[in-house]
Amino acid sequence: MKKHLPNFLTLLNLASGSIGTILALKGDLIYGALFIRVGACFDFLDGLVARALGLSSPLGKQLDSLADLITFGFLPTVIMYSLLELNTPSTELPYIALLITLCAALRLAKFNIDAGQKHVFLGLSTTALGILISTLPPIIANNHYPTISYLLTQPYTLVALSVFGSVLLITRIPFMAFKFNGYKWEANRIKYIFLLVGICFVIIWRVEGIALSMLMYIILGSLLQKYADTKRD
């Protein structure tokens, strides 16, 4: 049974993305977006369990990418398309959101054949972009920060996020991957610090804290990876 546990968790990730897509297509963007974050939990757990049990298989790798394409590629596209459709009179502009799915597919396909991405990501991870997009509907609805909520309903903001995020997916910029080398502090110090800061953000600001954590990762992820490489050398 143990050997099937990582794939089962991956399927739960896929189920989360599928449920979220159905909800988003029905117009429930907040709960649809929530399932991106649920899927991210399963995505983190399947890798963690696989490494803890010493399990790895070509099937698991392919299944993981297929699940990620739905949860962190297609579902964010549906959410972004819906937000653009709600906030612009243009009937063509919302289709810019398709870039997210297209670039996510390319990003995941490249990852599957690139042996150099075992300990570092080349390009922003689909998970990070998906989680960031998942925070938009609740931030807009909560309106805790009216100026930010207003900016997030502006077409130029949504288009910029779609295009810039999609481009980051397919760049060769190295980003820190949260794949732990055991559990010792010294080997994973930067990752533990980043996680602790992110958890503090979420405790203080909740969903806005999730968005802030993802922005921090996008902005600092490459610099943190370069620092980690320097310390390793």
The level 1 CATH classification is Mainly Alpha
Q: Rg, please?
A: 17 Å
For the largest sheet, list the strands in their spatial order. 1-2
| Number of helical regions | 10
Which blocks of ≥5 consecutive residues have pLDDT under 50?
none
- Number of beta-strand segments: 2
How would you sum up the global shape? Answer: globular
**Overall mean pLDDT:** 93
Give a written overview of the molecule:
- This protein is mostly helical and 233 residues long.
- It contains 10 helices and 2 strands.
- It is globular, with a radius of gyration of 17 Å.
- The model has no long low-confidence stretch (mean pLDDT 93).
Secondary-structure map:
Layout: H1 5-25, H2 29-53, H3 58-87, H4 98-113, E1 120-122, H5 126-134, H6 136-142, H7 146-151, H8 155-169, E2 174-176, H9 185-205, H10 207-232
Antiparallel strand pairs: 1-2
Q: Which features does this protein show?
A:
two-stranded antiparallel sheet; Four Helix Bundle (Hemerythrin (Met), subunit A); single chain; 233 residues; 76% helix; mainly alpha
In short:
This protein has helices spanning 5-25, 29-53, 58-87, 98-113, 126-134, 136-142, 146-151, 155-169, 185-205, 207-232, and strands at 120-122, 174-176.
